[in-house]
Amino acid sequence: MAGSAPLRPGVAPRLNKQFKLFGLAISGYDRPVTSFDVLVVGSGASGLAAAVSAHRAGARVAVATKGSLQSCNSAKAQGGIQAAFGEDDSPEQHAGDVWQSSHETADRRLVEILTAEAPEAIHWLEELGVEFTRENGGYRLARCGGASRERLLQVGDRTGHAITTALRDAVEAAETPTYPKSPLRSLLRTESGWRARCGEHELEAATVVLAAGGRCYREAEERGELSTNHPGATGEVTRIALELGAEARDLDALQYHPNGGAWPGNMQGYSIPETTRAYGAVLLNAEGEEFTDPLGPRDAVSQAIFDEVEAGRGVDTPDGRPAVYLDTTRISERDAEISLPYMLRRYRAGGIDPLREPILTYPVLHYQNGGLVIDEHGRTTVEGLYACGEIAGGTHGRNRMMGNSLLECVVFGRRAGRAAAAGH
Ligand SMILES: Cc1cc2nc3c(=O)[nH]c(=O)nc-3n(C[C@H](O)[C@H](O)[C@H](O)COP(=O)(O)OP(=O)(O)OC[C@H]3O[C@@H](n4cnc5c(N)ncnc54)[C@H](O)[C@@H]3O)c2cc1C
Predict the structure, then answer these.
(1) What is this structure's pTM?
(2) Which of 35, 74, 183, 405 could form a disulfide with 66 if both were Cys (CB 3.0 to 4.6 A apart)?
(3) Of the listed 149, 197, 298, 414, which one is catalytic?
(4) Over the stretch 112-168, which tens digit does the pLDDT of each residue have?
(5) Which residue from 404, 369, 384 is spatially nearest to 105, judged by alpha carbons?
(6) Of all protein residues, whose CA lies closest to atom 51 belonging to ligand 1?
(7) What is the CATH number of domain 257-365?
(8) Is CATH 3.50.50.60 the right assignment for the domain spanning 1-253+369-424?
(9) CA of 311 relative to ligand 1 center, distance in Å
(10) What does 333-362 look like in DSSP terms, one character per residue?
(11) Angle in degrees, 0-180, between the axes of helices 45-56 and 159-173, rounded to the nearest 10
């Protein structure tokens, strides 16, 4: 519920009379205003990480979000999160892979921070209770598309669920006021900071952290395509920021996940974890021929599938959709049981066993590569306005590697939360 947490001294509601005209309250403005130091918009991994960090920095924080606190892309993330823990790996190697995968379009400074702070971000998550899958005394690491090393940490194939659960627990433990079902509708500058209309609530804060994710759900609807995204990924907060004068970059660069589920019907739009390919699955055309490097960068793999189907070498799903085969029978039972149990369960529930027969796949709209321009503290180009996670651009340039988005949420969510608390 709105303001579900008790209001603390110093944040007592007061009636906003400023918008009364000729003694009449203008509809919607005659509401109590609640004030905070930092308002976080969005309850995905980036927003929750920002809220935890701002609270730890001593700020009075609130989180307003569009749906339930659980509703976000972060909770759907399956495959994993990257950090250079391998013996032959280093943050520099990781940064080099990001740079190559972005086709040299990323913001180098952000990439260096992302990769240098990755191991510490993992330990921070562990401190909050996330238990990454381990083997032989270390983390179980997989190699994902575009990576030169095994670097992907996992929590089975429900990594995002584990991370967001731990972050939500930390937000609750801090008694941070939360406003679910309170979408940001407008953001106005005041003398002391910002006034936000969030659903039925009027919230004031010295600084605001925008963590409202991307827009692929809406974009897919407009294109008549499938998307992996949750229905709240519609991008209106980016528009609000642009109207306030914030700069953005690469907003046109949307990413297709190479392996959307194409069949059975209940799996259409499901993102088949990229770890299937990390553990041996390959892409086959109608003739049963491999036609691309299964561990290439995402855009290259997606394009190869589009080209194969365009050239008439694809297969049709029973309901007439284009597809190719993902030969998951090459994955060992052991790897599947440790790193893909959720995917196995879902396919088997639909009557298909991916370890016995190849599954049908086709790219689906997945991720907004670009977004609001930020500096290394998550500051946008508008004073007092911060951004982190998928709504921000630069870290991935025009093509993101898998496993770097959850990482970005944690690294830059923490940074934005700290900086917003300090108000600089
Ligand atoms: C199916 C799937 C699998 C993925 N797998 C991986 C993976 O394995 N590894 C990886 O690194 N990345 C993965 N990703 C990408 C990654 O999960 C997301 O990009 C990342 O978690 C985005 O986090 P976020 O906090 O920026 O946004 P989100 O998690 O989408 O959260 C945005 C929040 O903002 C709220 N919001 C939206 N509009 C408003 C508004 N107007 N007012 C208030 N609140 C609003 C939403 O309700 C939501 O709570 C995956 C994504 C999907 C969809």
Answers:
(1) 0.93
(2) 183
(3) 298
(4) 999 999 999 999 999 999 999 999 999 999 999 999 999 999 999 999 999 999 999
(5) 369
(6) 77
(7) 3.90.700.10
(8) yes
(9) 34
(10) HHHHHHH-HHHHHHHHHTT--TTTS-EEEE
(11) 30
